Amino acid sequence: GTRRVLVTGCSSGIGLAVAVRLAKDELRRFKVVATMRDAGKRGALEKAAGDSLNETLEIKQLDVCCEDSIRECVNSLPDRRVDVLVSNAGVGMIGPLESQSIAAMKELFDTNFFGLARLVKEVLPDMKRQQSGHIVVMSSVMGIQGLLFNDVYSASKFAVEGFCESLAVQAMKFNIKTTLVEPGPVVTEFERKVYEDAEKMDLSGADEETAKIFREVYLPYSKKIFSSLGQTPEEVAKQTFKVITAEDPPLRHQTNRLYVPMTALKHADPTGRLPLDAFYKMTFKHNSVFNATLGVLRMLQRRAGEK
Ligand code: NAD
Fold first, then answer.
1. What is the tens place of the pLDDT at every residue in 153-183?
2. Structural domain for 294, as ranges
3. One domain, residues 98 and 41
4. ipTM strictly over 0.95?
5. Coiled-coil stretches, from where to where (predicted)?
6. Catalytic: 221?
């Protein structure tokens, strides 16, 4: 039969692309409930959905920061049935810690971590009764390996990873699958918003040297990484589709193979020195962090290939 998939954060980016990819499945295996916080922003999704709109894809309002909104949405579905949950809504945050307020950090966690917790609390009891289901979560490679000036964002994705890793064992007992999708850089609104915020960010809380590292080393580096290694949301959607249709989906799936060796550094050295030294050298001991990153990624990939 058809599986009902609820996707969050579908007004743009990866969420939009995942919803459309599933709705356009040639075998029509899915009924997609594409949700967004602000239903007024449905234009781009409607356009991308084309003929699948109101056929295999319907749009509903859902704010992951509001339990009532989640409940109302799930209650509106026949038998409250959700076969696949795609928890995608998320926000980014970059910059020196000294320039960020605790309130803004809490807000980010409210979306990126508590948003997931609220969704899972709502659908898990039904999935357990049905003895089936798949919880798919948009995490990030930064859920495995932290990155300079992404302290709070990375922490929120670590939280997501710990949550799912713990839950997956219990879920398995009820025949419920769990998958963390871990993209590297993806060119979406996310990236644009983050840079826009960074440009107008008040860096006065940080000392001059830190502000300079952020502006002159991190920002240009990060922009270059996005423009050269960034994937499209459609590519991430294609891989998410594969994960959802897989017979035996993995707990983790990285969408960008270039990053696999980088995250593996961490597991290779329990003391943490290896990745710490590598990131330090890349950032501060090399005149082009970008070239150093590419060099390290390629070297690691060659090594992985030799094994
Ligand atoms: P995006 O900004 O295009 O999409 C995020 C969506 O979440 C937006 O539509 C936004 O409106 C929605 N959203 C935010 N708060 C919400 C709330 N309270 N309720 C409902 N929806 C809400 O960015 P994206 O890149 O498509 O991000 C999607 C997911 O992918 C995020 O979880 C992000 O952390 C993750 N991710 C992105 C990248 C990247 O480089 N873009 C990399 C790795 C992981």
1. 999 999 999 999 999 999 999 999 999 999 9
2. 258-307
3. yes
4. yes
5. none
6. no
